Amino acid sequence: MAGYYYQIGPGSGMVSTVSKPWYLRAELPMSSDLSLHRSILQGGSSSSSPSRRDLVFVVNPRGANGTTGKEWKKLLPYLRSRLDKDCNICESLTSGPYHAIDITREAIREGADAVIAVGGDGTLHEVVNGFFWAGKPVINHDREDAHSTALGLIPLGTGSDFARTWGWKNDPYEAVDRIVEGLRSRVDVGVISGENEESHYFINVADIHLSAKAGYYSSRYKRFGNLCYVVGALQAFMGHRNCDLRVKVNGGAWEICSQVTALCIGNAKYFGGGMRITPNGDPRSGEFEVVMLQDFKWYDFILKLHKLYKGTHLTVKNVSSRSVHSIEVENISVSGSVYVQSDGEHLGFLPRKFSILPSVIEMIC
Ligand SMILES: Nc1ncnc2c1ncn2[C@@H]1O[C@H](COP(=O)(O)OP(=O)(O)OP(=O)(O)O)[C@@H](O)[C@H]1O
């Protein structure tokens, strides 16, 4: 699917499409997005001085049950007033799942200074995946430096869990201020490989079994806001059985982990709409924090849920934590599929290998 976006110029802010190759391959936006584009087009003036930096905003208009699109529209005048002087502000609305990946790849190849995800963790996840292609970082056509495009985030999703690790709120105005300030830091990204599958990337938390199943179901109930995680968890509990897994940490020997309820691989700290599951996860540490819950019963969640939210569960019985740079996980039992998700998006089933790519992306933070 070809990408499309519009450049919003300085001054009084007329907007024009940008005459670069991939913009010319633009598809027409979906009708509901067209109104948003039109409203921008009516407001602006155009400019594309070569010295100005291109900031590409990848907006999921359907994020947070459609709130992202509405908030983005309200945010644009502020964005223009703060960034118009120095930057070309380019917006691209996604037309459906996975579109953000293509937009990001094209923007990097065309030399964008930053690609900024506007939406929730799902949108951020797709943008992060757009930083890679065929197992390698995407590079600019004209420059040798593979990582010259920075990643940014305007958190406007239902959970927006990655933002919580940085202490950011779902406040788009604060996010714009961060982009204006322009501080950048290198962050780690997780890569997941499976049998005969292409590599897949994550920036927040990947998880296995009950929590992944809960995430799978919760995505059907996003219209309930943060309550979707509770409804998803209740549905996942029905018919849930703890299972024995085989794991290999940092390329060592295989170990058996019995009666695993959930295994969570944190590049950051939060998942499930604010649960501090891997409380020591840090995307600048070069390691994952792996937290395993074993032999949990449904009532353990009721009794210990507050600890999971606060991140004080590591001392609870049957909870373990360790720092790793790679972990392979297999299902021992031949019957039943064990769910895997990454950044809250369903990925498939075991077996999978998770490895860290230290400092691979520069992030605006
Ligand atoms: N135009 C679109 N129409 C429908 N779905 C889309 C569109 N663009 C992206 N998506 C999908 O929407 C999903 C959810 O998006 P996003 O993460 O931004 O919001 P959220 O689910 O409300 O927030 P969070 O993931 O933080 O809970 C993503 O998986 C993405 O693939």
From TrEMBL:
Q: Which controlled-vocabulary keywords does the entry list?
A: ATP-binding, Kinase, Nucleotide-binding, Transferase
Please state every residue range assigned to the domain named DAGKc: 50-196
Tell me which domain of life the UniProt entry assigns to the organism this sequence originates from.
Answer: Eukaryota
A Pfam family of this chain: YegS_C
Signal peptide segment: none
Provide the protein name: DAGKc domain-containing protein
Species annotation: Hevea brasiliensis (Para rubber tree)
